[in-house]
């Protein structure tokens, strides 16, 4: 079971020692933090003349979501993909009807293009802890064992959506879980990927294939 993963931007992993971040690294990182609804110092500008300003407020978050939605839709359509988007729940999302980051990303993509529709049908059965804080798990087995599917989810294939790709554990775990319920993952999209080598252009990341077996 494998599928392509599309990403919009990348920045160095926190685990990578000795890397001095450049302006583009901070811009990508701030973009992700604002989409997650977190406070950041300063702001980032994207596009010619800085047309899109991303800052820590509701307007900035809306601008950031709109920015990546267009990029995501373009990548997925160019790759030949369309259809249901299934967001990977945040580590503390344990009930249906609760809004979370990947759901906002999915909604933004679906709003941008009618080729896609958002289906937030996954939740965790218990709080998993923050992986960035070192308390959560990135094990695909652990992720798969702790997911729940909403009753009445009427889809047979989907595109997974998440905020950041680090080890791929959450995408792999979600793909395994969905496969066990007869739902095939055909592709995935993440806003950013933590990298060890910088891309030539921040919004020039290449897609790659993940084996979720």
Q: Compute the number of strand runs.
A: 10
- Report the order of strands and helices: EHEEHEHEEHEEHEE
Instruction: Give me the CATH architecture, please.
Output: 3-Layer(aba) Sandwich
Give, in spatial order, the strands making up the sheet with the most strands. Answer: 5-4-8-9-1-10
Question: Nutshell version of this structure?
Answer:
InterPro entries: PRTase-like, PRTase_dom. The chain has five helices and ten strands. It has 213 residues and is of the alpha/beta class.
Please provide a written account of the structure.
The chain has helices spanning 23-35, 58-78, 101-112, 140-145, 169-180; strands at residues 2-12, 44-46, 52-54, 83-87, 116-118, 122-124, 147-149, 157-165, 184-195, 208-211. With 213 residues, the protein is an alpha/beta fold. It has one domain (2-15, 70-211): Rossmann fold, CATH 3.40.50. The strands form three sheets. A six-stranded mixed sheet has the order 5-4-8-9-1-10. A two-stranded antiparallel sheet has the order 2-3. Strands 6-7 form a two-stranded antiparallel ribbon. Strand 2 and strand 3 form a beta hairpin. The N and C termini lie close together (5 Å). The mean pLDDT is 89. InterPro entries: PRTase-like, PRTase_dom.
Pick out its properties.
single chain, 213 residues, alpha/beta, Rossmann fold, two-stranded antiparallel sheet, 5 helices, 10 strands, globular, PRTase_dom, Phosphoribosyltransferase domain-containing protein, PRTase-like
What's the topology here?
Layout lengths: L1 E11 L10 H13 L8 E3 L5 E3 L3 H21 L4 E5 L13 H12 L3 E3 L3 E3 L15 H6 L1 E3 L7 E9 L3 H12 L3 E12 L12 E4 L2
Parallel strand pairs: 1-9, 4-5, 4-8, 8-9
Antiparallel strand pairs: 1-10, 2-3, 6-7
Helix pairs in contact: 1-2, 2-3
């Amino acid at each position: 079971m494998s599928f392509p993963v599309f990403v919009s931007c990348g920045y160095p992993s926190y685990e990578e020692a000795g890397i001095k971040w450049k302006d583009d690294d901070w811009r990508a990182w701030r973009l992700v933090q604002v989409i997650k609804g977190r406070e950041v110092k300063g702001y980032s500008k994207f596009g010619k003349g800085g047309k899109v300003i991303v800052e820590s407020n509701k307007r900035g978050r809306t601008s950031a979501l709109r920015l990546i939605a267009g990029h995501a839709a373009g990548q997925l359509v160019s790759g030949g993909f369309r259809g249901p988007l299934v967001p990977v729940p945040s580590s503390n999302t344990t009930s249906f009807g609760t809004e979370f980051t990947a759901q906002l990303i999915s909604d933004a993509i679906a709003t941008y293009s009618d080729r896609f529709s958002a289906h937030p049908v996954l939740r965790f059965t218990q709080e998993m802890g923050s992986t960035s804080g070192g308390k959560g798990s990135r094990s695909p087995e652990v992720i798969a064992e702790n997911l729940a599917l909403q009753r009445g989810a009427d889809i047979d294939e989907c595109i997974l959506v998440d905020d950041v790709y680090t080890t791929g554990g959450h995408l792999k775990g979600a793909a395994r879980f969905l496969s066990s319920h007869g739902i095939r993952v055909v592709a995935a999209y993440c806003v950013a990927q933590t990298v060890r080598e910088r891309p030539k252009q921040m919004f020039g990341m290449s897609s790659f294939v993940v084996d979720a077996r």
